[in-house]
Write a structure and sequence with these properties.
By secondary structure, the chain is an alpha+beta fold. It folds into two domains: 110 residues, Ku70, Chain: A, Domain 2, CATH 2.40.290; 101 residues, no CATH class. Helix content is 24%, strand content 26%. It contains six helices and eleven strands. The strands form three sheets. A seven-stranded mixed β-barrel has the order 1-2-6-9-8-7-5. A two-stranded antiparallel ribbon has the order 3-4. A two-stranded antiparallel ribbon has the order 10-11. β8 and β9 form a beta hairpin. It is extended, with a radius of gyration of 27 Å. It starts with a strand and ends in a 6-residue tail after the last strand.
Length: 291
């Protein structure tokens, strides 16, 4: 794993050398290129001025903030340079809080923070263990790519996670969601029945099916296309609409008859696009012949 940043986690007079690594795997992400349907040539894009219609070179492009329709405050690179925050190469911890105090909507991108060399291993382990024992997480700021980011430092297994956070002004209020006022509290019978159902469904995260079946099916589809095979697809049956009490009772009866188990590969495949011919008559998509 290659680091993307190196610096220190710093609080008061303590500075721990660390390296930062991406926690999210992007190599497995499937991306498609846009192609011209007639000859399958890749689609390119020109930077074209919407006012005069001319294609514009990069050195002729500047930045502007639209404060009124068709009116811009022009901001040149030298203007931005004046307000850039000085990079300190440090995650400055401002304080330690309970993780429950961090709104779930604040969470953004996670990164791993690892010790940078043998000299940092002892203080690194000390910070990790003290946060585990106290149940606290560090809240701080770090300058990355000329921007000051708000971050949280969590202990995770035998390491530390640097969780990038959204600033409060970036997060919309849930009060702005339409029709929330109409979602009033249910009656006691509905609540009691739903509580019983939830209690029967309590399990551990390790028992939950967390496989990305769409990603797997998409990979198989692409492999099949490369090999020139026919693609078989099927439509997922829509569930009938039921009233809430009827749905709760039927769910409760079903869950009480058999224990909740981890989804098997066979069961999971029924929910996703498949390349294996099902029992019902499949819809066959004919492959386009190359000219």
């Amino acid at each position: 794993m290659r680091s993307i940043w190196k610096g220190h986690i710093r609080f008061l007079l303590v500075a721990i050398p660390v390296r930062i690594y991406n926690a999210i795997e992007t190599a497995e992400k499937i991306q498609f290129n846009q192609l011209h349907r007639d000859d399958y040539g890749p689609i390119g894009y020109d930077k074209r001025c919407k006012k005069c219609g001319q294609v514009v070179a990069n050195d002729q492009i500047t930045k502007g903030y639209q404060y009124e329709p068709d009116r811009y405050a022009i901001v040149e690179p030298e203007d931005i340079a004046k307000v850039k925050i000085k990079t300190t190469k440090a995650v400055d911890i401002i304080g330690f809080v309970d993780s429950s105090e961090i709104p779930v909507t604040f969470y953004d991108s996670p990164y791993y923070a690892g010790p940078d060399g043998p000299v940092s291993e002892k203080p690194y382990a000390l910070l990790r263990e003290v946060m585990k024992q106290t149940g606290k997480v560090g809240i701080g700021k770090v300058v990355l790519r000329d921007r000051e980011d708000l971050v949280a430092v969590f202990p995770h297994e035998n390491g530390l996670v640097l969780q990038k956070l959204h600033y409060p002004h970036e997060v919309r209020s849930i009060k702005d969601v339409p029709e929330l006022e109409g979602a009033k509290k249910p009656d006691k019978n509905e609540l009691k029945l739903a509580t019983t159902l939830v209690e029967q469904m309590v399990t551990s995260m390790s028992e939950i099916d967390t496989v990305d079946h769409y990603h797997q099916a998409l990979k198989k589809l692409i492999e099949s296309k490369i090999k020139g095979k026919k693609i078989v697809e099927f439509e997922v049956e829509e569930l009938p609409r039921l009233d809430i009490m009827s749905a709760l009772k039927k769910s409760l009866q079903a869950s009480s008859r058999k224990p909740m188990v981890k989804a098997t590969t066979t069961a999971a495949k029924k929910k996703a696009l498949t390349l294996v011919k099902p029992a019902a008559k499949p819809k066959v998509v004919k492959r386009r012949k190359a000219s």
